[in-house]
Write a structure and sequence with these properties.
By secondary structure, chain A is mainly α. Chain A has helices spanning 6-19, 22-42, 47-64, 75-89, 93-96, 113-118, 121-131, 135-144, 150-158, 162-182. Chain B has a single domain (1-56, 64-85, 92-213), classed as Jelly Rolls. Chain B is globular, with a radius of gyration of 20 Å. Chain B has five helices and nine strands, in the order ααααβββββββββα. Classes of the chains: A mainly alpha, B alpha+beta.
Chain lengths: 184, 213
């Protein structure tokens, strides 16, 4: 089956919100649940915990679909925000910490040109801002999405002090912020 | 409202957007975002980046019965949102704080009161709300970890500056500060706190064993 693009994903969420459309929901599940599972496994969760998390996040998508507003956020951003809130609120740290994350499993280049082009406007903007950073800076920022202990792990991996990782990350985020404000 | 001067560090907003802050810290940042359009806009961008990362992750195979289990769950769920918690008694709070249950106000010293905010704890880290009268100092406390403070009403001053409504301050173990309230009205602030509060003065030391915060 062809990957639905961002506009299609948005229409599917709206169909769930307006009509409780089960077929639309099944397509959303097939697109997002396997990726949410990857997201949580890269954050250090065991596969079964990551699968439970994906189910919980998708149940929230079902419940809150009527609140989705495509003018405010793209479909992937909206689903990410739901998963993010769930990660903060509900997921117990014990589950998240059940496995040490492997730094080599982190995505090298998650923002392929196709992914950027199929995204909503906000996704295109952040994608191009990210690509204007140095490789190291972009990598530090991406790493920050996957594990709260990323700083210590990056420090170990690169053999540099923790304080250096923190100051480099800080510079990277500040640069990202200025790049984003230029394109507004 | 006065202009917001002190906003969270970029990396703190990134950690919030990414979902790696602890729940008490995230609650204080979320309340700041409700008051500060500038921080809120940057977090929206970082969330869009999160969306782009999720959208481009390679899929991991689900368990064989995963879709069937999911469809059974939504059928049983009927699409009903879970019962929402009732609003708490402080109507002026920013929206993200209205549904947290609030504990009773406790006396902490002259002009100083504290109540718990029902955000899930993470270890010793929890959210407290302080109300501190004009000219009073914040209670002495230890910093075992990072502490995040958001001013909701009134203002205080410490060596890092003047903090009014919407302003956000992060202090860590290296910070030794004792803010003084410099507004005419009590300063109401929300704090994600890791350390213990030490009550000063004779009365404070006498009641310390009975004040569990």
């Amino acid at each position: 089956m062809q990957q639905p693009d961002s506009a299609e994903l948005g229409r599917l969420i709206e169909a769930v919100g307006l009509n409780r459309d089960r077929a639309a929901f099944a397509r959303l599940f097939q697109h997002f649940a396997p990726r949410l599972k990857t997201y949580l496994m890269r954050a250090g969760a065991a596969p079964s915990a990551a699968e439970d998390f994906a189910q919980e996040a998708m149940l929230t998508v079902w419940r809150k679909a009527s609140l989705f507003d495509p003018r405010r956020a793209g479909a992937s951003t909206w689903v990410f925000t739901i998963a993010r809130n769930l990660r903060i609120d509900a997921l117990r740290r014990e589950k998240l910490d059940s496995r040490e994350p492997d730094i080599t499993e982190l995505p090298d280049d998650p923002l392929t040109p196709d992914a950027i082009l199929s995204g909503a406007d906000d996704t295109i903007r952040v994608g191009s801002a990210l690509s204007a950073l140095t490789d190291d800076q972009a990598r530090l920022i991406k790493l920050s999405y996957f594990h709260e202990k990323a700083h210590a792990e990056i420090a170990r991996e690169l053999g540099i002090p923790l304080g250096t990782v923190k100051s480099r990350l800080r510079l990277a985020v500040i640069k990202l912020r200025s790049l984003l404000s230029e394109t507004q | 409202m006065t202009r917001i001067v002190h906003i969270p560090a970029e990396e703190t907003l990134l950690a919030y957007a990414a979902g790696t802050l602890r729940a008490p810290e995230a609650a204080v940042v979320a309340a700041h975002l409700a008051l500060c359009p500038e921080s809120d806009r940057f977090v929206a961008e970082l969330q869009a980046l999160g969306g782009a990362l999720i959208g481009s992750l390679p899929p991991t195979a689900l368990a064989a019965d995963s879709l069937g289990r999911m469809m059974a769950r939504i059928d049983a769920d009927g699409g009903e949102a879970g019962a929402e918690l009732p609003m708490n008694d402080m109507a002026d709070l920013p929206e993200p704080l209205r549904r947290y249950p609030l504990g009773p106000w406790r006396w902490l010293g002259p002009g100083t009161r504290v109540r718990s905010v029902g955000v899930p704890k993470d270890g010793d880290c929890r959210v407290l709300m302080f109300s501190i009268g004009p000219g009073r100092k914040m209670p002495q406390h230890t910093h075992d970890g990072v502490e995040m403070t958001l001013v909701l009403e009134g203002s205080y001053r410490d060596e890092s500056g003047h903090f009014g409504p919407g302003d956000f301050e992060e202090a860590d173990t290296a910070t030794d500060h004792q803010p003084v309230v410099d507004s005419d009205v009590p300063c109401l602030c929300l704090v994600a706190l890791d350390g213990q509060i030490r009550l000063s003065g004779l009365v404070g030391r006498m009641i310390q064993p009975f004040v569990r915060l």
